[in-house]
Amino acid sequence: MIGVVPELPVFGGDAPKERADAARNRLRILEAAAGLVDEHGIEQVSMEAVACRAGVGTGTLYRRFGDRTGLVLALLDEHTREFQDALIGGPPPLGPGATAAERLRAFGDGYLDLMETHADLLVAATRSDVDGRGPLSFYATHLGILLREACPHLDPAYTAWSLLATLSPGAFVMQRRALGWPMERLRFGWYGLVDALSASRA
Prior knowledge:
By secondary structure, the protein is mainly α. 70% of the residues lie in helices and 0% in strands. The protein has helices at 20-40, 47-54, 58-65, 68-89, 100-124, 126-130, 136-150, 156-166, 169-178, 183-199.
């Protein structure tokens, strides 16, 4: 079984210490952004609108978050950190203490739940994975470690990235909204993939 894996790169790292006023500004900005997203959807929310509602200058917003993708990542941070913490040290089967095959199944369950709740934000954050700011590298490392145990005959890095491609937020939105697939179908589809890989162990 795989235990706690200290080499996993936790996405985002430890946040630097903030002055009290800076922390209050950050919280106000994120609350304003979250409110606008709830009201209008992420695609209709501009940096200017967030700055206006938060009562800060647009320049302040860009200096703090870099760009719109950085703001989206900040909104997602709490939820993605919870998921990462569960992968590293949570109860099995998502966390340590279960077989690699069981943990592969549980990863899909957890990530599908994350997308069900935050799909639009995850789609908006997709660009962050291209430039290295998003959490996909963390997930690929985690899956690669499990795959080395569950199916050592396969290339773990290639297989991990291939599995993640089946869980892309864009594909998830299409499957759930355009095709109308229920969550159960997506879960069983993921189980079928990882179970087949584990069963093919040479």
